[in-house]
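Service request form, structural biology core

Requester: graduate student, group of Dr. S.
Request type: structure prediction, single chain
Budget code: on file
Notes: please return the result as structure tokens.

Sequence provided:
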Amino acid sequence: MLLLWFIQVGMEIIAEEKALADLLYAIHMKETGGQVGKIKGHNDGGKALGPMQIHRAYWIDSKVKGKYEDCADLLYSQRVMLAYWNRYARIAVEMGDYEILARIHNGGPKGYLKAATKEYWTGHWRTLRGKKIWVKGVACHLKDYRNKGKGKR
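Core staff response, request fulfilled:
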């Protein structure tokens, strides 16, 4: 009986880690389209760094050892994000509230309260050279990633 409990708990932990990995992937796609390396300010005029577009203040708040320039590395950037989320949104991490986590990544510790981060999560219509295009938000990338190979888009 105890063994079955450990197996069930273990499977739940694996599922939660997979969902969090999916969220990190979706944010990576939203921030830089999946690019890696020392990408400076992809969407903000050069203020953020790396594939997850980490700002210096965000990195400092995360308290992850290393140098800010290490944010050019994808795995290091993801460690910074997890530390930041555990500092400012531990309950959202534990509950798997990925909307709050994505909006905090985009707007800071109180980002989940900002109207501007709602678009970051859901995506929005944007006009580009007279054509209306859908700009995917994190939720859209997450849905696309989870539906890959299932014939849904």
